[in-house]
Amino acid sequence: MNPQPLKIVGPEDFQDAFRSAAVRGAPAVWVVGDPMFLLHRAELAKLAMEFRLPTSFLGRAHVEAGGLMAYGPDSLHMYRQAATYVDKILKGARPAELPIEEPARFELVINAKTAKALGLTIPPSLLARADQVIE
């Protein structure tokens, strides 16, 4: 099955998007990184549960709010990386001359409680690779 984008302009579109995904028979929903989705993470987790759709997110906060899983850059580590740039700039480095760095650490977070509520069994090998499993 090919990914099917769902048009979401604002939070008022969430319900219809999840309903559409469920009606289409989507096996799961991948929520891209966007500040709007982070702000409404609890609502997204609730709708995913309501429509019985496993969800994958970019960050840990979504999983802590009830989403199934997240894989993405470790935000805390990225903030620490940013602090080193600020330090260099304050010490006189020219921002245009600083190298661009990619995220150095990624994390996998799985919500076992959500998996159980959805009737999913997470393979032990995936649980073993997770940086955190929320029980």
Order of SSEs, N→C? Answer: HEHHEHEHEHHE
CATH-derived architecture of the domain at 11-74 and 106-134: 3-Layer(aba) Sandwich
Structural class: alpha/beta
| Arrangement of strands in the largest sheet | 1-2-3-4-5
Q: What gap, in angstroms, lies between the N and C termini? A: 31 Å
Helical content (DSSP H or I, runs of 4+):
40-55%
How many strands in all? Answer: 5
- Ranges with pLDDT <50 over ≥5 residues? none
CATH overall fold name of the domain at 11-74 and 106-134: Rossmann fold
**CATH homologous superfamily identity of the domain at 11-74 and 106-134:** Response regulator
Number of helices: 7
The amount of beta strand, in percent, is 5-15%
CATH class of the domain at 11-74 and 106-134: Alpha Beta
Integer-rounded radius of gyration: 18 Å
Nearest-integer average pLDDT: 93
Q: Can you summarize the main beta sheet? A: 5 strands, mixed
Q: Based on CA inertia axes, which overall geometry fits?
A: globular
What does the model show?
The protein has helices at residues 14-23, 35-39, 41-50, 60-64, 75-90, 112-117, 124-129, and strands at 29-30, 55-57, 69-73, 106-111, 132-134. With 135 residues, it is of the alpha/beta class. Strands 1-2-3-4-5 form a 5-stranded mixed β-sheet. Strand 2 (55-57), helix 4 (60-64) and strand 3 (69-73) form a beta-alpha-beta unit. The radius of gyration is 18 Å and the shape is globular. The two termini are 31 Å apart. The mean pLDDT is 93.
